[in-house]
Model the fold of this input.
Amino acid sequence: MAQQPPDPASFERYVGEVTANDVYLRSGPSANYYEVAKLSAGDRVTVVGRQETWLAIVPPNGCFSLVHKNFVDLDATGLNGVVNGDAVLVRAGSSLRSELYAKQVKLDRGAEVTVIGPHNQDYLRIAPPPGAELFLSSDYVARAPDQTAAPNANVASLPVAAMTGQPSTDQPSNQATDAATPAVAADAGTKPSPQPSAERSALTQLEDAMTAEMEKPLVQRDHAELLERYRSLAGKTADAYVKAYATTRIKQLELGAEAAVEVRTINDTADRLSAARRDKIAERANIRAPIREIGGGFDAEGELRNSALFSSPVGPKWYRLVSGIDDVTWRTLCYIEIPPDLTLDMNRYLGRKVGVRARERRLLTGEVDPVEVLVASELVILDAGVPAGENESTRNEPVRP
Done:
């Protein structure tokens, strides 16, 4: 039968002492969970539970949790926040690894959190809220003989170096606050809210300007001015929160400026192509097809007849072009060769007056009289002539003049 995990309510919390150096503190009860910090021999921790060979402890000084910035409303100082959503997940933060999948607790709407600073573009570092736990291997923790632990400092008041996630070296690594006891909000009547520094106020004003600029189309945003202002603020501030926030904005603006240049280049190229296309369309509209007048521009004109002398079952078909001297006598003007690529219904042209445009002219000199042959590129019917069929049976081919 599988061993059931102990009931947390029945676990007797105690103070443990780390027995080795460079002991990894992990985000979950397994070596597969990511490391969040390292502890050294002699560091004291508050053990609040056990899962097999792993001890659940209250997060020591210097550790932090993560919450998505969209679910926290910050006050003017940026150090305090109120959760604005329901069942908002809090995750284990790490200064050693980039992972943040380990879940610690869920916060209800209205819960107050202490903000340490930005973690990345999407998450805020916060002091671990009540109920948050981290895990140590039980192989490296012994029960402290005196069962006392020095009180913890407020995580939010730690020096900036504590934001790295490394345990504090000037006091024991433990936390005496009862994780099951809800945090008590400070009495506003006895402890006035701290006023934002000039640099925090400058950051707030700069964020307002950033928000207004981001509402504009990408290519219309003034990235240069915002970059100059954020760089100036990041360069002169000693406030770690302001510096980290400004540095993140600088990276975002630099990427935005590069993207704007690329979009402008694409837009300019598209405009040039559109203009060139319009010019080509206008040029094409001005091109007029040559006008061919009936009866003009032909290489030969006459009535088209079949040829009995130059006919062959293979090769190009020849026809003769004739002109009438009188009703009985017809004069052969030339012969017309129809090339294979000129697909015409020749019955439409036979016996009618046609105009011939030639792609080639040849002269046959093997006969008594030279014979001109036109290789046709086009036949145009000029008017009605002798009906097709009559020219083949009733008229003899005349002697060429």
Summary: The chain is about 20% helix and 30% strand. Residues 240-286 form the longest helix (47 residues). The longest strand covers residues 371-383.
